[in-house]
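look at this stuff:

>
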Amino acid sequence: MMWTQKQRQGAARLFFKRLLLLGLLAFMIFAADGVWSMYQKERDSKSLRVIAENEHGDLERRQAQLKESIEKLRTDRGIEEVLREQFSLAEMGEQLIVIVEAQVPAAKQASSTFISTIRSLFWFW
């Protein structure tokens, strides 16, 4: 079967249109992959930012506590208080009282229960 000039041109156009559509589809897939990876990076960076902000807040609180401790240690009363806490020191004439809490006895458990008594009677079962 012989194709006419017009039929050959139509077939060539159809082939190039399909090839162009296939190229556009490949481009769309490539672009969608890029957009998806950017979305994932944005989501990951957002969660990392929240973590970093929390750590920053914790560090600021810790810094404030350390500054307070340093200011406290710059006074004689602060140094005395720290020495008394850490080394249980007392001045001359003072007595140290140590309060020891009474130990709570452990709860007693029954040596045998009703069910264990029944089981001992029917040991073969």
